[in-house]
Amino acid sequence: MKPNELRAALPPAAVGWVDEAVSQVETDPGAIARLFPRAARACGRVPLPGSSGWTADEAARALLLAALPGDQVAAEADRLYRYGDADEKRAVLRALPLLPVGDTAVPLLHDALRTNDTRLVGAALGPYAAHLDAATWRQAVLKCVFMGLPLSIVDRLDERGDEELRVMLAGLAEERAAAGRPMAADAIGLLNRLSGTALRKEA
Amino acid sequence: MRIFDPHIHMTSRTTDDYERMAAAGVRALVEPAFWLGQPRTSVGSFTDYFDSLVGWEPFRASQFGIRHHATIALNPKEANDPRCVGVLDVLPRYLEKDRVVAVGEIGYDSMTAEEDTAFAAQLQLAIAHELPALVHTPHRDKARGTERSIKVVAESGIEPGRVVIDHLNEVTVRTVKESGCWAGFSIYPDTKMSPPRMVEILKEFGTERVLVNSAADWGRSDPLLTRETVDLMLAGGFGEDDVDLVFWRNPVEFYGQSGKLELDDAAPENLFEGNSILRGGS
């Protein structure tokens, strides 16, 4: 979602605080250090209707980041993530595709993918994950399966899924079958789709 | 039965403990930042620890339906190491976090000049960030340490009703009650305070402005001693309402002064966009 769409989706009671905070950040970028952690207390955490999973606090935080001067946003996003609680870290990750940071924020995805916090791992696999190399991305997809995260959170899953991912998923399916433990239906579905693709490619 | 443990070091506990605590009625807790047993030697190891208190630990707790909050500070023991004093400079960032409900544990360990400085500076941070303060009292020379803590609190200008003085016993409780600060008690298997002694203190000093915690940490301790104290209170003539006051409404009132307690939804958090499935693995 674009910043103007996020703003439009905010609860009416949150818009005033966000507009005021955005104008503060525009005139004094350093103010974001204080405003960013306060956003959830000021705006609440309700899910925004029709917003593909954004909550009010995440949207408010993304709008604050988007208000930073372009040449400061990468460094500030890094700092806010570094010192953020889990909700703030998630908000930074979700905001990345909206910010002019190029691929400089990839280390934040790596950090999130090292955690075992489903909210962070999930947020690392949105559109900004386009900047992840294939090996890291495949490991992340497999980690989702291990953690029970729905694969629908992975951006461009079928487009990026490849033979190597199929081999990894097939290996997991074999281990699960040997242990008598189930594998999530969406992971089996992906494995089947990748197998079908592989067959078609061979033909 | 609902229990709010106002001081417990969950970093040291396993998921078995979370499970047993939830079964015993624990619905919310506050985890104060303190020492980890092994002394730290750099600011970075503190920030990683603080990150865990506002990141990973609340996530773990949420899987058991327990609301996790934290207090953040440079503890008195490590305030004596010049390599750790820089922690004071990073505290303001953490004190703004949603689930950080007090400055703590601050106070005295060996009553050094370094501890004086850190204690006073952090009481000023509590005032600046509009947070209550959690004051640890020393194990050694406790009575004088407690009196000196009360004096430092009074000099700081913070309202005494926004301060809890913790780890009290029969000897130190009276002066704290008279100071207007809250009285905190840490129930341990065989040190600071025991459930039977706690019940006697509640009989003598009443149930107002008292916080009772298990403090459970990496030493010999038991996260269910809050529940054991509840059972002993009931057996000793206290009613359900007294128990609810001491083990729920008191901590809610004290930490609620931060304006940041979140207890409306005591059910497990939505772990991911409505999907609360959480299997293990990495």
The coarse overall form of chain B would be globular
- Uncertain regions spanning at least 5 consecutive residues of chain A: none
> In percent, how much strand structure appears in the residues of chain B?
5-15%
Oligomeric state of this protein: heterodimer
What sequence of helices (H) and strands (E) makes up the elements of chain A?
A: HHHHHHHHHHHH
Brief account:
Chain A is an all-alpha fold and 203 residues long. Chain A has helices spanning 3-9, 12-27, 32-43, 56-66, 73-82, 86-95, 106-114, 118-123, 134-147, 157-160, 163-179, 185-202.
Characterization of this structure:
The complex is a heterodimer of chains A (203) and B (282). With 203 residues, chain A is mainly α. Helix content of chain A is 66%, strand content 0%. Chain A has twelve helices and no strands. Chain A has helices spanning 3-9, 12-27, 32-43, 56-66, 73-82, 86-95, 106-114, 118-123, 134-147, 157-160, 163-179, 185-202. An eight-stranded parallel beta sheet of chain B has the order 1-2-3-4-5-6-7-8, with helices on both faces. The longest helix of chain B has 17 residues, at 240-256. Chain B is globular and about 50 Å long. In chain B, helix 4 runs parallel beside helix 5 (113-128) and helix 8 crosses helix 9. The model of chain B is unreliable at 266-282 (pLDDT under 50). With 282 residues, chain B is of the alpha/beta class. The two termini of chain B are 35 Å apart. Chain B has ten helices and eight strands. Classes of the chains: A mainly alpha (203), B alpha/beta (282). Chain A binds chain B through residues 33-34, 37-38, 40-41, 53, 83, 85-89, 115-119, 122, 143, 146-150, 153, and chain B through 47, 51, 54-56, 58-59, 90, 93-94, 96-99, 259-260, 271-273, 275, 277-282.
